[in-house]
Every structure is written in C-alpha cells, then in structure tokens.
Amino acid sequence: MVTKETGRIRIIAGCILLGTFIILTRLFFVQLVHGSEYEELGSRQYVSASSNSFNRGSIFFINKDSTPVAAAALAYGSILAIHPVQVTDAESTYRSLASILPSLDHDTFIARASKKNDPYEEIATRVNDANTADIEALKLPGVGLYRQKWRVYPSEGLAAQTVGLVGFKGNELAGRYGLEEQYEKVLGRSENATQINFFAEIFTELGNRLTKNSQREGDIYITIEPTVQDEVQKELAAVKEKYDADLAGAVVMDPKTGAVRAFASLPSFNPNAEQKSLSLLGNPLVERVYEFGSIVKSLTMAAGLDAGVVRPDTTYNDKGTLTLNSKTISNYDGRARGVVPMQEVLNQSLNTGAVFVMQSLGKTRFRSYFRNYGIGEKTGIDVPGELAGLTDNLESTREVEYATASFGQGIAVTPIAMTRALATLGNGGVLVKPYLVDEIRYKTLDHEKTQPLVVRRVLTERTSEDITRMLVAVFDTALAGGKFKMDRYSIAAKTGTAQMSNPAGGYYDDRYLHSFFGYFPAYDPHYIVFLYIVYPKNVKYASETLSEPFANIAKFLINYYHIPPDR
C-alpha cells in the first residue's frame, strides 16, 4: 500500500529528476547545438549591440568520405560607424582610423563627420575582428562598432547556380536563386533566435513536428561532391574555351538513386561578388529546354527492344532518305547504307533507322514510351524554376513529327530530364527522381534524410541489358574507331549532334548543339555522365568535341571512387 509520505517522496523525486533532465538538456543545447551562436554573442563584449540581425543556416557539400565542406555560411565582423555630434576632431579621428583601415576615403569621412545633426553615419562594413579590436582599443570619441554577419560562399564559383545566393526581397535578405531560394524556410532564421526562451523553443519545435510545419530551421547537406564538381567544371571550361561555345553543361548522377554528384553550367558567377548580369544567375540545367539530337536514338531503340518490335540483329533497308508528309528526312550525310542491323543504327547514328524503329512501334506506343521516360514532365528536382519539356509534337496526327522526335528533333527537354530518361537504360529500366539535398539537420538535432524514389518502371531489366550491350559496342568500336575503349571497364555511351532551331523558323544550317552521355561500369553503373555544349564554333560533330572530356571525367570518377573493374 502506498502511503501519503511515499507518494510525496515519489513526487519530489520525480520533480528532481525532471529538473535535472531539463538542466542537462539545456546545457547540451547551449554547448553543442547553439554553442557557436552563444560564442558569437560572447564575442560582442568589446562592441555595441548590433542593429543588424541577419542570421541564416548553412549549406554543405559532402566529400566522398562524408566530411562536410561549407558551400554557404556566415562570416562575422563589424560595422564601423560614427556619431558626428560626438566626434571632437574629425581630422585626427580620420588619421587614427586610416592607420588601421587604409582604404578609408578622407573626403567622404570628413563630409559625414560634418553632419552634426545626424546621429549615425556608417563608415565601413565587414571590418574583421583584428581591426575591430584595434579600433576599439583607440577609444575614439563618437566612434562605434556594431557586430555584423553576412553570407559568404567559401567555394566561390563551385556549383554557384545550384547553391544560389542571398539577396534583397523588398527590405529583407532572403534566398533568391538555387538551393538558397528553394530551402528558404529551412535556412532562414527568426530574429533574436539565440535569445528565445528554452521552453518556448522546445514547445515550438514539438508543435512543428506534430503539425508538420515546414518552417523548421536547420542546415542542409547536399549530394554534390566538391572535388567531382570542380573536376567537371574544369573540363567544361576547357571545352567551352576551345570551341568558343555559348554554353556548356554537365550532370553526374547515380542512375540507381538519382543522387546528383555534379551539376555544372558555364558561364557561371561568383556569389561573393557584386552581380552585374542577372542572366548568369539562373540554372540552365533545369530552366532551359533543348533539342538534344541523336542521343535520343538510344531511347527510341530501347523502346523498340522493349516492345519486341526489333532486336539488335533486326535489319532494315537504309536508303539514306525518306519522305513523310511531304517532308524529307535524311541521314546526317545523306548516304544510303543498304541493308543494315539495328546495331548500325546506333553505331552510325542513322536517322532513317530511328524512324524505322518508331514506325515499327507505331505512333501510339512510341508516344507512350516517351511519356514514360518523363520527357514531357518536370523531374521534381529540388531547385526552383524547373521547366517541363516541350513535347507537343507527340500529340500530332502527322507521322513526320514522330519521325523527327525519334532522333531528337522537334521535342525539347531540360538537361536534367534528359539525364533521368537516359538513366533508365542502365539502371534496370526504372525512372528515378533526381535530388540535390541529401539531408536536412534541424536545430534541435532532428534530421530528415532524403530517400531515393523510383517513380515508375519504364523498361524491363532484359531491355536494359540489351540496350546497354548495344551502347557498349558503340563506345568500344564506333566512337572514334574505338580510340576511347577501356580494357578493364565497360562503358555504354552515345553522342548527339542537333541542329539548333532558328527563332525565325526552321533550323540553322551552321549552328549545332552537341551532347554526350555514358554510364559505367555498364552492367552495374555507379554513374551516368551527361554533357552538352551550345553552338561550338568551327566544328560540326559531338564526337569531335565531347568524347575526350567524357573520357577524362569517366577516368577521374573511376580512380577517385576506386570503382572496381568489370572486365
């Protein structure tokens, strides 16, 4: 039987245990979770309180060894300001400050110090801590120092269009592009967040969890591997410069999960610098659509194999040209090959062969496969501004529209959507959702891990093996006569050369978009690499421009990740 005394003892013991738990938990949060913030608050002991309350979560790349590398973070310093009415000797004050900050302009300082009716004039911003301490030690009348925080991008131009930047939205700083914008509700911070009541913080977080509130604050860790991103950007820069291309882009993705390891587009920008060209801030990998040309033949061939209307050894009579709906379609050189198997359609990139497969499928089945590849939809990748593909030609009643679509003309898609579609060829035939954020770590130590998502099955596993075998033959024998074949690694690949559309109608005769994709090891791929360049000068075919950059990237990835050979 429980006596009243025993009950009181239990209540008191319970209160003590609860109090101890709360204190220990609070210490844990103060020292570990918010330690850096309180340390920063403590560092203000030699300066005045700041009117600048900017605060924000961080973005991290993840190295191959799982070490985080800052992509976007906060820097700390001070605002140097004067109170003109309190400045007794402007010239002397200027000389003292200029001895520490030589870049201070004399005339501007004197003009501001002369505004005796103005209570506050900013003189310099982002003063580092060493200079702040030196200025504070001078104890100059009328001189104030105010703690300041600002956004910095330690990796500068690395994946800049993907990371994005912070800019003004009205009177407030907020994410404006890329992940900074996409995850504003996670990265943004409420004012005086470090001074919030502990119990309020706990109950607020509990409420957020119960209501699935999307405004929980934290840091984000992204799938992009910085060393891989840097290597890819270097290859893009070299090929863009060599051929004076208008634009170059690349995606490196795990074809089985959709995790993106590199997401690059040039020209780009340095988010730490003043932005003078808004056109560079958007991300062409999701915000522009292109007609990619002959790489699409791989998708057409896979659809034909999957439906059972062709096999790799199926033949057709290539006459070099054909006419549909009064429109003539030709091979790239107009030359007839005679009776050739499907393998040669890919090896020699024959437009008439792709049309043969499309006609064997029929318009309805061809359209169904291309819809299943996700050609006309958004991928759902977690950056803003993604466009859906332009695929109205697949609803046409004219056969010629389907014919041109079979070899990659007349339909336009984003680079990320094309990469996702091509990944189905090597990953066993499933369409995955690409993603850039691996994990969100919330301020209260909770975390949210992205789980790979299979959207739907597009091809059978047998079809995936068959088309992969055909694409390996393309890389080993047809591409530059087998120049890039790797003895110990199988690589499935295909090039694409597409005429660029003319805004005035039709296509340019002398402007091309080059593309290249490949995945490896071919029968159990770790990575798919997709490359493209827009309007390279004085060169016609993608095999000339992108074969070597692809081979360089493939070799780098194999060595960097120690991928075991499959031959």
Structural summary, described in words:
This protein is an alpha+beta fold. The protein has 3 domains: 1-33; 35-222, Penicillin-binding protein 2a (Domain 2) (Alpha-Beta Complex); 226-271 and 287-560, Beta-lactamase. The protein is 37% helix and 22% strand. The protein contains 20 helices and 20 strands. The strands form 6 sheets. Strands 1, 2, 3, 4, 7, 15 and 16 form a 7-stranded mixed beta sheet that branches. The N and C termini lie far apart (77 Å).
SSE diagram, text form:
Elements lengths: L3 H30 L1 H8 L16 E4 L5 E15 L7 H9 L7 H8 L7 E7 L1 H10 L4 E10 L7 H4 L2 E4 L2 E4 L2 H5 L1 H4 L10 H14 L6 E5 L3 H17 L4 E7 L6 E7 L17 H4 L8 H12 L7 E4 L2 E4 L2 E4 L7 E4 H6 L3 H11 L1 H10 L26 H8 L8 H12 L3 E3 L4 E6 L4 E3 L4 E4 L3 H18 L13 E10 L5 E14 L6 E8 L7 H4 L1 H14 L7
Parallel strand pairs: 1-7
Antiparallel strand pairs: 1-2, 2-3, 2-4, 5-6, 7-15, 8-9, 8-20, 10-13, 11-12, 14-17, 15-16, 18-19, 19-20
